[in-house]
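Hi support team,

I've been running sequence recovery on a batch of backbones for a student project. Most finish fine, but this one hangs at about 90% for roughly twenty minutes before it completes. I'm not sure whether the input is malformed or the queue is just slow. I've pasted the structure tokens below so you can try to reproduce it. Let me know if you need the job ID as well.

Thanks,
M.K.
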């Protein structure tokens, strides 16, 4: 009975595996780059009113932009990795 299971066994060759796995990484890189740009733009727009606060407004704005860019990169990479090309 065990031999019958292995007679019809098919495996993926190395080229097919590399193609399937490579598509996820290309999408992750593209999604990450797009996410950084979109996140930085959204963070800059959201933090614009805080810029007028005397003393630390610029630091708050920079922090919001940086946090938004990182979040955008992570989310964009996740979506890009899971999206087939």
């Amino acid at each position: 009975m065990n031999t019958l299971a292995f007679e019809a066994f098919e495996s993926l060759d190395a080229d097919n595996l590399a193609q399937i796995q490579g598509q996820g990484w290309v999408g992750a890189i593209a999604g990450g780059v797009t996410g950084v740009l979109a996140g930085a733009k959204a963070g800059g727009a959201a933090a614009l009113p805080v810029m007028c606060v005397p003393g630390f407004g610029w630091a708050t704005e920079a922090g919001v932009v940086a946090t938004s860019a990182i979040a955008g990169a992570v989310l964009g990479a996740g979506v890009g990795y899971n999206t087939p090309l």
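--
Follow-up from support: It reproduced on our side and the slowdown came from queue contention, not your input. The mean pLDDT is 75. No action needed from you.
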